Amino acid sequence: MSPQDNDIRLAEAKETLESSLQYLIADAKEYDKGNFIAIKRSVITLRTLFYDSNNNSRSLLTYLNAKNDLQMKSFVTPFQKEVINYNNIYFARFKDRRTKKKYYDTFLFFPGEDKPRTLPFDCWWNEKIITFKDSNDEKDSSLSREQLVKIESNKDGVAHFDANIRGKAPRNYFDFKRGNTGIFIKQISDPLTHLVMVGGDFDPNDTNIIGQDLNLALTRQIVHETLISLIPYFDIPLNYEPNFNHNWLNKLNSIGWKMNVSDK
Prior knowledge:
264 residues, 4-stranded antiparallel sheet, two-stranded antiparallel sheet, 39% helix
């Protein structure tokens, strides 16, 4: 490639970067209004930004030579003794407006007033965004950001739908998506506790409650971390104003709670 062609291509890469961040902002805005599935589109953009494949396909940030000195914001709080750590991911119940079910039991990324850590890109990309293992590390279902973006885009119908979900990381991803983690909310016998912790109508005959689509909350977290990291790093004049309060205040359970379990 001639120097002139290289300069043209570099300018196009910078334009693609700005438009990519605009896509993320648009998807985040939809999610923050309650259109949760909209955030799933973002994994295509995240893959374009970050993922270097083994077949010599380079990510946009690699092309822009940014990964070596880029510092990323992380809302993961590392605890050495934690065997289950959902970080800032909380259970949330909503009225189901998509299906014939009465309620949609899911999760929300809600950072609140927490301040993010700062990590080098490779540490951030490979960091476990959710920790889920036993105390002896014999069964570890944790997922990194890289794993989530690759699986959600390549196997879960965003860029490609793959009927084959063999492999440890894909199985873990789909278990989180489907709520097949073995963790559920046992039927609560006290109406007041049910109202506060779960929300919605109390029915003593209800079955156990299982949250689903954890992948969407995790994707919203990655999108948020990406935007607050890349916009200032590249000094791009984009306006990103997340509204985490809308979904938080509209969930039916008045108390937000999350799952953190220590082996000590």
